[in-house]
Amino acid sequence: MRARRTMFWAAVVALLLPASLLTLDRVAGPDEGLMVRLVAFTPLAIPLYAVVLVLALAALVHRRHRRGRRRRSRTAFVLLAAVALAGLAAHAVWFSPLLVGANPPAASRAEPLTVMTANLHAGRADGIDLVGRASEEGVDILVVEEVTTDEVAAMERAGLATLFPNRIGAAAAGESVDATMVFSRLPLGEATALPTRLDGWRVDV
User: Fold this and answer.
1) Dihedral of the alpha carbons of 57, 62, 64, 68, in degrees to the nearest 10
2) Cβ(184)–Cβ(166) under 8 Å?
3) DSSP code, position 177
4) Tell me: the pLDDT tens digits for 128-183?
5) What pTM does this model have?
6) Which listed site, 81, 100, 115, 137, has its alpha carbon 20 to 30 Å from 89?
7) Residues 6+ apart with CB under 8 A from 16
């Protein structure tokens, strides 16, 4: 019985540790480094919390049908279930707009705006293919990270300026990863450089 309890709590810890890290990262909202990249994986906390919740509820049911059950153990399982449910609910709310649309919904007469973003990995991605995809998808604004002068030249040959006559930012020479550019079919307002470690912009459309 002790070995079974040890396995149970070991499984709970193995699930809750990464789930909690993803939750804290999502709440903190970091603006640079590894933690920014980790935000992209926060939906993975949903199944982790769901499994913990199932384990906690199963333990409660099992404890209820055992004789001589201890109140302290039951309280621990209740708290565990509450933590898992809270984490699951938070991540479900954060993830739901990807499934059900904007929250709050757009105004009734609002015009849709299609934005595409891509990281060209300092010339290791295919900028020509990106221009083709942007054209096929009817993109209004194209934001490109780690863009180089050679890649922009290739994109120009693919019709970049015709599709997106407005732009801000400048490409980087060589294999630098610092440059971010915004290409737009629509007029762009004044651009403000953001205080981030890598190149970033705020611009009105």
Assistant:
1) -140
2) yes
3) S
4) 999 999 999 999 999 999 988 889 999 999 999 999 999 998 888 877 777 899 99
5) 0.62
6) 115
7) 48, 52, 83, 84
